[in-house]
Amino acid sequence: MEYPDILHTLTKPDVESIPSETIVYKLDVDNNIVAVNRLWQSFALANNAPELAIDQVIGKPLMQYISGNITKHFWQTLLDKARLANTVLHLDYRCDSPDLRRFMRIKVYRGDGESLHFESALLRTESRPVSIHFKRAQQRGADAKVRCSFCNGILHKSHWVEAESLVTGQKSVTLDVIYGICPVCQSTLDSL
Ligand SMILES: [Zn+2]
Q1: What distance in angstroms lies between residue 67's CA and the mean position of ligand 1's atoms?
Q2: Beta strands 154-156 and 22-27: pairing type?
């Protein structure tokens, strides 16, 4: 997965301070993606998302890649807060794969000309006892669970739980989900 390195579009001091395993992207004042690093591309392709390849995303609005009104609203609030803040904002989130819980931390800060810089780093992983795939349901139905798009928790009987707790006796399972934001992630964002 070798692709043109477009990190040169970021300013040099930023690049030097970023560990190599960090996904980096930059938005312009209108929240269009203007730069991503090589790891973005590797991550996109490893997750079967060729639509996120570098040559596809540059110049596109970030919001185009965020599904669901609730998640879009969450991200819009984060972008607004980051532009107003005079400090770097940090948020922990999960970006799980079927076999791994991936604990991530995102760092957002304002750059020149109202641009926003994002650095998303993998903190640690834990293997899952069960392989869990998630399929986006077209609508909220009896079988579809609500999944927090930020911490990957699943709403089950009014509690937010790890997906594994809903699965027994299987090695691999696919859950139908619709995406939302859990109250914990919402209040973490609100308190930034
Ligand atoms: Zn959450």
Answers
A1: 15
A2: unpaired
d(C-alpha 88, C-alpha 82), whole Å: 8
12-20: which pairs have CB atoms within 8 A and are 24 or more residues apart?
14/111, 14/117, 18/119, 19/121
How far does residue 44's CA lie from ligand 1's centre (Å)?
22
CA distance 31 to 79: 8
pLDDT in tens, 81-122: 999 998 999 999 998 989 999 999 999 999 988 899 999 999
Model pLDDT for residues 113-159, shown as the tens digit of each residue: 889 999 999 999 999 988 999 998 877 666 899 999 999 999 999 99
Dist CA 10 CA 14 (whole Å)? 7
C-alpha of residue 181 to centroid of ligand 1, in Å: 5
Q: For tokens 């596809």, what's the residue?
A: 56
Query: Would the pTM count as exceeding 0.85?
Result: no
Say how many Å lie between the CA of residue 1 and the centre of ligand 1: 31
Calculate how far, in angstroms, residue 153's C-alpha sits from the geometric centre of ligand 1: 6
